[in-house]
Amino acid sequence: MTDAHLRSPHTMRREISADRGALFSTLARLWPYIWPSDRRDLQWRVVYATMLLLVAKLATMAVPFTFKWATDGLVGQGTAPIAPDSWWVWVTAAPIAMTIAYGITRVLMAALTQLRDGVFAKVAMHAVRRLAILTFEHMHQLSLRFHLERKTGGLTRVLERGRNGIETIVRMVILQAVPTLVEVLLIIGVLLWMFDWRYVVVVVVTVALYMWFTYIATEWRIGIRRKMNESDSDANTKAIDSLLNYETVKYFVAEERETRRYDRSMARYEDASVKAYTSLAVLNAGQALIFTIGLGAAMVMCALGVRAGTNTVGDFVMINAMMIQLYQPLNFMGMVYREIKQATVDIETMFNILMRPTEIEDKPDARPLAIGAGSLRFENVAFAYDPGRPILKGVSFEVPAGKTIAVVGPSGAGKSTISRLIYRFYDVTGGRILIDGQDVRDVTQKSLRQAIGMVPQDTVLFNDTIRYNIRYGRWEASDEEVKEAARLAQIDNFIRVSPHGYETEVGERGLKLSGGEKQRVAIARTILKAPPILLLDEATSALDSHTERDIQDALERVSRNRTTLVIAHRLSTIVGADEIIVLDQGVIVERGTHYQLLAKEGLYASMWNRQREAEEAREKLAQVEDDAKAPNRNPPPLGEPVPPPPARKVDVAPASAK
């Protein structure tokens, strides 16, 4: 972030909260961003906007007066005897001038209102940007646990709705509700000055009944609207799900079933929509009825005053004009209330995320990691995602500087948890992890993660170019360094033959590339990062055998002379490791070199034999398929077994062990 005033969420959590449904509490919490203490220019904009608001409302109140004076001038009436030298003589004698003044005041009213909105827009959008950035930054600071529990789509919707909610609150409250309140107060003052208290009572009762009915009807409509939105979301979800599974629908000839399923959702949406439109008609009719009764009562009183000689025809017109001017903003109050209520809920959700404490934080005295040789050591490490289900139980091992240690074990043994703990996505619940003798909890997270390179099993790329994704490893790298990293990762040939070269778009999550190409991009950006410590988390387990061998060659070049921890699924990829650690149910059950572990005939040997048997079965099947496809070769008659290929003897022991 470039602005100094965008403070960290750690400070924000002491300032932000949102009481459920409390509009005033939300406004109070938003005020520091509408009136930022470090931005005098925005404060002046608030002052200017407030002044323009008052002047615009004074211009609004002048409109009925000019209408009144023009009318009185046309009928030759006045409110009191006028001296010959009075300026009222000119006013009542010049209805054309007052008509022109009426037009000018209306134009002035509209111009001042738009100018106010324009001046205040910078304030409103700065508040939106400021809170959106704080929330976005805070989401990145929350732990992996939080992101695994929440859906990414849901988080982006929280950010989007919170951002829109802030804009709505500012626009509706400050640019709609507050001006309406000011106008009501000015009308009350004018009525007391120009007429009497009875008119004030009529206006106040009309506005109060109008707002009460709007509140009741809107609360009723919110439930209907919610059902309509839920039905719409359900129909949209089913449509997208069906279209994404287009081939599956065709496989099972399920077009009619999918259409019926979608129609059921649309039927619910239709029913809810009819109720929503009906309720809107009831709301509008009720508002119109209440306001018309109030308007009629005020005009009847004024008409009686005209007949009695206490009021002029201009007063009659003025009452009508003032009430009609008031009706337009009041007419929006139902929508304003509904939008404000929804926005308050959306902002509250955003604030709840901002208030959520970051599970992993740097200590106040944390220092940058000082990398020397780059050794890595686990000392009696224990960890549990859930206190009732421990994952690691007193794990101890060391990865000496420049050596390669592999961690293997059955699914759920805790292998991937080890890499997450090294990165400090979680903190250990017991023991400690040391890098060159420094506890990873005592150093800054930024320096720790800068010293580690990761090639994960499931490589996810940004929806951008190959150059962007490789350069992500070290953003300041030159184009030549990017190309060298691609060459070392053995992806430069693919890039050269691509029509757009390094500007080739990789698609959403890198889906335009094959699995092997994505892995090579991940390796290239790790090479570009040039970390002293390397983590390979089952980096080839999802690839075919041919691609695996190519990727393995690239990984061996990357890990050369680096402290490397390999979390392996395919045991054939870690035969040359300096030491292999076998995990089972969170405990180290075996350790040693490949041949030492085979000689023990324990868990590792059992896993090795099962994988070799599976690989041999695949090779036999492939051989049979090749034989069947070979030209000038007759397949065996049906019912006769296919002779297996000659058995291969697999040498798994060193010469010294024979």
Question: Would you mind describing this structure in some detail?
Answer:
The chain has 658 residues and is of the alpha/beta class. It has helices at residues 9-12, 23-34, 40-75, 87-92, 95-141, 144-149, 152-194, 197-244, 246-251, 255-308, 313-331, 333-355, 415-422, 445-450, 466-471, 479-488, 492-497, 515-529, 545-559, 594-600, 603-629; strands spanning 376-386, 389-399, 404-408, 430-435, 438-439, 452-455, 533-537, 563-567, 579-584, 587-592. The chain has a 6-stranded mixed β-sheet, with helices on both faces. The longest helix is centred in the middle third of the chain and has 54 residues, at 255-308. Residues 1-21, 78-85 and 635-658 have low confidence and may be disordered.
Number of strands: 10
Please outline the major beta sheet.
6 strands, mixed
What is the CATH H-level superfamily of the largest domain? ABC transporter type 1, transmembrane domain
Q: Which percent bin holds the helix content?
A: 55-70%
What is the distance, rounded to the nearest whole angstrom, between the alpha carbons of the first and last residues?
A: 64 Å
Helical stretch tally: 21
When the domains are counted, the total is 4
Structural class of the secondary elements?
A: alpha/beta
Give the strand line-up of the largest sheet: 6-7-8-3-9-10
CATH class of the largest domain: Mainly Alpha
What proportion of the residues form beta strands (DSSP E)?
5-15%
Using the 3D structure, state the CATH architecture of the largest domain. Answer: Up-down Bundle
Average of per-residue pLDDT values: 75
Low-confidence stretches: 1-21, 78-85, 635-658
